[in-house]
Amino acid sequence: MDSILGSISAGPVTTAGIRIVIAGQEKMGKTTLGSGAPGALIVPLEVGYAGVQTPKTKMLQTFAEVNYLVDEITYWAGQNSFPPMWTVGPDGKRTLIFDSATALERHIHDAIIQRDPAYKPGGNKVITMESCHGGYGKGYNLANDEFDSFLAKLDILAVKHGINIVLTCHVFSSKVMDPTAGEYDSWDLLLHSPKNQKTYGKRERIAQWADIVGFLYEPVFVSQDTGMVKAMSQGKGRVLGLSRTPNYMAGNRFGISGEVPIPAPAKENGSGKDGWNTFANELYKSRGIDIFNRQ
């Protein structure tokens, strides 16, 4: 065995791919922003990608298909060879975009329910995540194990093969109980969470796994000038929140704080390249990590 102490290094790891979650409400441009990454390949797991002019696979509708694709990419990455339709930038970088983590969770849950011995396609008995495999949270535990295995496969692509990993994620308005501040509303990732302070769900797992969780939104203000309460745009366009606030789930491991203005997609082709490079510039300034799209 080679010396482990001999492998000690200092400074940021610039050869590994970055693992990113882009969260936000529907129609905010999460997929378009991710599509601006270098050498992007979109893996659609739900409808909503038709207008994005970026190489993409067919829409995957089962967790078995998703696993097969990741295994296939891992194999070809080991051969340093990919299909010609997955174009790569001049710097040799690639980005894999799963759209979305919320849809991926649905596929995992479907797979877990179908493994229940009582499940019969087209049968009259309704089996849910709460009741499958004997209930008492066993279905969710099995789903968490599958999700962990999936993230571990993505780690290999990121760390060993230098592929950036992006997962988009839907959000919902959630009640947060903060022991220091009490209860308040916040935008949270639309993934299962037990919320019992004892066990973790896929929401907690992906938040811990990601190097960056960004919240994409358009700031608004509330107006009561006409006697009616209205939410109106602040005219700032979209921003990507990269550090935690009481308003939304976000954070990163690179010391980036605040919000980054994200330019609108290019009118001629809907490209999110400008938005991606604006975000990439913040990462480069903070840690010298280069994920720019130079195409």
Please give a structural write-up:
- There is one protein chain.
- The chain is α/β, with parallel strands linked by helices.
- The chain has a domain at 15-215: Rossmann fold (3-Layer(aba) Sandwich), CATH 3.40.50.
- Helices cover 28% and strands 21% of the residues.
- It is built from six helices and twelve strands.
- The strands form three sheets. Strands 1, 2, 3, 4, 7, 10, 11 and 12 form an eight-stranded mixed beta sheet that branches. Strands 5-6 form a two-stranded antiparallel ribbon. A two-stranded antiparallel ribbon has the order 8-9.
- α4 packs parallel to α5.
- The N and C termini lie far apart (41 Å).
- The model is unreliable at 229-233 (pLDDT under 50).
Give a quick precis of the structure:
The protein has helices at residues 30-35, 63-78, 101-114, 138-160, 202-209, 273-287; strands spanning 19-24, 40-44, 95-99, 164-169, 171-178, 182-189, 212-217, 220-223, 230-233, 238-241, 251-252, 259-262. The chain is α/β, with parallel strands linked by helices and 295 residues long. Helix 2 (63-78) packs parallel to helix 4, helix 3 packs across helix 4 (138-160) and helix 4 packs parallel to helix 5 (202-209).
